[in-house]
Amino acid sequence: AQTVTQSQPEMSVQEAETVTLSCTYDTSESDYYLFWYKQPPSRQMILVIRQEAYKQQNATENRFSVNFQKAAKSFSLKISDSQLGDAAMYFCAYRSAAGGTSYGKLTFGQGTILTVHP
Amino acid sequence: DAEITQSPRHKITETGRQVTLACHQTWNHNNMFWYRQDLGHGLRLIHYSYGVQDTNKGEVSDGYSVSRSNTEDLPLTLESAASSQTSVYFCASSESSGGARDTQYFGPGTRLTVL
C-alpha cells in the first residue's frame, strides 16, 4: 500500500516571501499522479497543482510550483510571493495510475497548516 | 453549474444511533468516494463506488456502509455511531477516465459529533 508523509505539521511565512512545503511518499509503482490540495478555514478542498510521475518537468500553476524528485520519492510545493489568502491546511495526495481496486483513490498525507504573516 | 453537495453540514448524535450522511453530485460522475478527516491523519478513505450497484471498502470502513442506487447519490450510513466516529466527513466524485485530469471534486464536508 502507498503511504504519504508530510513531516511539517505547521509552517509560517511572511507575506510576499516564499515557502516550501515538504511531502514524501512510498510506492512500488512506476506510474502515478501526485497532487497538492488546499483547505482554507471554509473546509472546502481545492486542487492546487498536479504532477504526472512520467513527466520529468515540474508542474507550475502561477505562484505555485513543485519540485518532483521521483527517485527520492519527494514532492514539495513552493509558494512564491505568499499572500494572506494562501493561509490554509495543505495536503499532499497520491493516486495510482493502475486500474482495478486501486483506481481513482487518493491517499493523503497528514497535512501542513500554513500561516501567512502580514 | 455542476456541483457536489452534502447534508447535513453539521450533525450531533448519540452513541448507538444510526446516522446517514447524504452526498449528491450533478457532475454525472461514475466514481464517488467517502473520506473522513481527523487531525494528524489527513483524509482517509472509508468507502467508494465506481458506478451504480458497485461499492468497495476503503482503509477505514469498519462501522460504515454505503449503497449506490443511482449515479448521483452515495449515502454513508453509520450503523451504530461511536465516539470514535466523531470527525469531518467528505464526499468526492470523479470521472472514470483515469488520466491525470481525472480530478476529484469534493463536497463541503459534514461535521459529525457523536456524544
What does this entry look like structurally?
The complex is a heterodimer of chains A (118) and B (115). With 118 residues, chain A is an all-beta fold. In chain A, 0% of the residues lie in helices and 52% in strands. Chain A has no helices and 12 strands. In chain A, the strands form 3 sheets. In chain A, strands 2, 5, 6, 10, 11 and 12 form a 6-stranded mixed β-sheet that branches. In chain A, β8 and β9 (74-79) form a beta hairpin. Chain A is globular. Chain B is mostly beta strands and 115 residues long. In chain B, the strands form 2 sheets. In chain B, strands 2, 4, 5, 6, 9, 10 and 11 form a 7-stranded mixed β-sheet that branches. A 4-stranded antiparallel β-sheet of chain B has the order 1-3-8-7, with no helix packed on it. Chain B is globular. Chain B starts with a strand and ends with a strand. At the A-B interface, β6 and β11 of A face β4, β5 and β9 of B.
Helix-strand layout with pairing:
The complex is a heterodimer of chains A (about 120) and B (about 120).
Chain A: E1 3-5, E2 10-14, E3 19-21, E4 24-26, E5 32-39, E6 46-52, E7 60-61, E8 64-69, E9 74-79, E10 88-96, E11 106-108, E12 112-117
Parallel strand pairs in A: 2-12
Antiparallel strand pairs in A: 1-4, 3-9, 5-6, 5-10, 7-8, 8-9, 10-11, 10-12
Chain B: E1 4-7, E2 10-13, E3 19-25, E4 31-38, E5 42-51, E6 54-57, E7 64-66, E8 76-78, E9 87-94, E10 105-106, E11 110-114
Parallel strand pairs in B: 2-11
Antiparallel strand pairs in B: 1-3, 3-8, 4-5, 4-9, 5-6, 7-8, 9-10, 9-11
